[in-house]
Amino acid sequence: MSKGSGSGVSRSDRRRNARKEHLRELLPRDGAVLGIDLGEEKQALALADHDVRVLWRKTAEELDQAWAYPRDLGRRREQLVKAATASVLRIGDFLSVAWPPAPQAAAHPFDSVTWLAAVQVVTARCGADPARLAAAGEEEFTALVRAAVPGRGRQAG
Question: Global pTM?
């Protein structure tokens, strides 16, 4: 007996369809994406359209030094993504124990530039003791957070 909605569409089908729909939202209707597979045994290029249909594919038969550099960059990117993800999880764990309301202040706190700027202000100004900021008042705290937002790659609103 299968689990699910009874439509015959599996959970993995739904996830794949959701990923494709997300890609469609990111790519203009008349755009295309060039993907590069830097596998150990074989490297390949694929050009996909808005509906994630492969329009063109090319496999590199000769693995030479030209492929070594992008493969090295790909490995380095993977290491950085893993390290960043681990750091966010560690910080979230520590905050949830030391300062439980902080991670609950936003739906996705580590994706919120304002939340990150507020935490930056709190830790820089008062050594992670929010009570020390209370004397400054809400207006001054808001001004400090707004001043910290552009340093995170966005403009204050």
Answer: 0.55
118 and 149 both lie in a single domain: yes
Task: Tell me: do 112 and 147 sit in the same domain.
Answer: yes
Helices 113-126 and 138-148: angle between axes, nearest 10 degrees:
110
Which residues span the domain enclosing 37?
9-61
Find out whether 4 and 11 touch, Cβ atoms under 8 Å.
yes
CA distance linking residue 37 with residue 105, whole number of Å: 39
Answer yes or no: is 2 within a domain: no
CA 34, CA 70: separation in Å to the nearest integer? 14
Residues 82 and 116 both lie in one domain = no
Digit-by-digit pLDDT tens for the chain (157 residues) are 445 556 788 988 889 888 888 878 887 888 888 888 888 788 889 998 878 789 999 998 777 788 788 888 988 999 999 999 999 999 889 888 888 888 888 888 988 899 999 888 888 887 767 677 788 888 998 999 999 998 777 655 5
Question: Do 152 and 113 contact (CB within 8 A), yes or no?
Answer: yes
